[in-house]
From TrEMBL:
Keyword Nucleotide-binding attributed: no
Record PANTHER family: PLACENTAL PROTEIN 11-RELATED, URIDYLATE-SPECIFIC ENDORIBONUCLEASE D
GO MF annotation: an example: hydrolase activity
Protein name: Uridylate-specific endoribonuclease
Amino acid sequence: LFSRVAEERLFSSATFRRLLALLDNYEVLTGHNETVTAQEEEEEEAFLEAVFQTPVMATLSDFFLAKGLYPSEVAFRADLRQMWFGLYSRSGGKALDSSGFEHVFCGELKKEQVSGCHSWVRLYRLERSGELNYLSYSYDGPWTTFPDVLALQYRWRGHLKSIGSTLMGASPEFDLALYTLCYKTRPDRLCHLSLGGKAVTIQTYSWTNSFYGDKQRFVATSYPVSP
């Protein structure tokens, strides 16, 4: 899948570096409780701290505050942490085994299939470690630069992802900001946007089986739609 990635340039930035620190924090098999250690909580906070210092997240914060969705950036950040990192069960209540962040940015293995896994950084690291076998692609978006939408098929530890999609080349803060924008403004439906003059559609779903706070729903998934 990847012929070359400029690791020294990309992964030296704070958001990439702190995303990489999160990728080994999760039990990828559903049905097993997630144990969040103090160090892992610190890594989550460090990632959010880096993300909220970026221009793209500042733009999203200003937009949400202007629309009256949150009273302050502090309130927005606290809610974002809950909706993305809050734990819930994808195993019928048997275990607190999932979160929106794990599902979208890391991926999960469930019933011989790959579930989620919409971060190109995760795909790159899995292929580099020999865990991912890239099979084919079904859609390569119209953009000539990155980020670009790619729909692909692969196997991860033998588990099949028959149709998967990612914003190839996007930064972690871009992914998180875009998916959060669509999740808050177009939950559980298609979110139509324009990126670089080209149309892109994001699908979001909320987790309806459990809640946090005042009946707020966790992120179930968010991903770019391919034709």
